[in-house]
User: Which sequence fits this backbone?
């Protein structure tokens, strides 16, 4: 990654133009050609720097609710537990963390009842019953773009 | 729960087209619009409105932080007295390397009620930052949880 890549990333993280020819506009701002911007974005996707380009939503404004869950899972049951949890489309992030509560996942669903029901199902299927449900009461900050 | 502008069925089609990865093309919105049977100009108008109304909180590229040079991240869970939540939440959110800060309902056997995601070049840097944050707000009961493995990371398919 060179400084041109970085300047493109800074533009398209937070100031992606919502217009017919967004890359032409990014090119204009950075004094590049549209073709070069697209080529570089293609490469940044190929090498895995860019995960995706699209919208990020406030799920509560779409009448969805979300929560953070943490489960205490013995090592030998880990694979099966993760397989079952990841099957749910509402589970969008799932990480192994260094804590007795070792599996941490986020869950988005139309309402909390749906999430509780899913957690019950997961417990029944995996035998893992120690699952914390930590719904958000207030968001102080969410900012997932980085100055590079 | 939702305030202000309420989305309609056409917005749902637009959201379905932008909740994943836009096609890489000189006219990405035209292609996305075509897929859900809308003219490009109407599609763009609706994306802009969803953003203006705060339903889209950010539109653009999402990076893999490791690949982009932020080597480590940690979730730091804090135990904050209820009467200090507002003040401590604001103070921790103000750190530049904190990307997420949420007040959450604690659970039985897990008393932590404030959660921050911190990003740094290394685990050591994340730990130092957590200590600096702890000092700033005078809270000593916290857990630094590093991710050891990513099992899943995807964007929500709402519609």
Assistant:
């Amino acid at each position: 990654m060179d400084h041109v890549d970085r300047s493109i990333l800074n533009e398209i993280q937070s100031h992606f133009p919502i217009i017919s020819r967004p890359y032409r506009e990014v090119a204009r701002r950075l004094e590049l050609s549209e073709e070069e911007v697209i080529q570089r974005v293609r490469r940044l996707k190929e090498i895995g720097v860019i995960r995706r380009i699209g919208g990020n939503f406030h799920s509560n404004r779409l009448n969805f609710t979300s929560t953070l869950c943490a489960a205490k899972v013995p090592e030998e049951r880990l694979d099966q537990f993760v397989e079952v949890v990841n099957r749910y489309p509402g589970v969008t992030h799932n990480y192994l963390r260094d804590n007795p509560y070792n599996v941490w996942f986020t869950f988005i669903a139309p309402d909390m009842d749906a999430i509780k029901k899913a957690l019950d199902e997961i417990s029944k299927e995996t035998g893992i019953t120690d699952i914390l449900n930590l719904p958000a009461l207030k968001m102080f900050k969410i900012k997932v773009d980085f100055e590079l | 729960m939702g305030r202000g502008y309420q989305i309609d069925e056409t917005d749902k089609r637009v959201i379905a087209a932008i909740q994943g990865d836009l096609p890489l093309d000189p006219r990405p919105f035209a292609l996305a619009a075509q897929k859900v049977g809308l003219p490009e100009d109407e599609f763009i108008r609706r994306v802009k409105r969803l953003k203006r109304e705060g339903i889209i909180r950010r539109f653009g590229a999402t990076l893999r932080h490791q690949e982009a040079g932020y080597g480590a991240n940690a979730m730091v869970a804090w135990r904050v007295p209820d009467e200090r939540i507002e003040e401590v939440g604001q103070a921790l959110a103000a750190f530049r390397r904190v990307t997420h800060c949420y007040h959450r309902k604690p659970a039985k056997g897990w008393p932590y009620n404030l959660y921050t995601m911190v990003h740094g070049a290394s685990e050591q840097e994340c730990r130092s930052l957590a200590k600096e944050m702890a000092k700033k707000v005078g809270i000593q009961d916290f857990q630094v949880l590093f991710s050891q493995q990513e099992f899943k990371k995807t964007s929500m398919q709402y519609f």
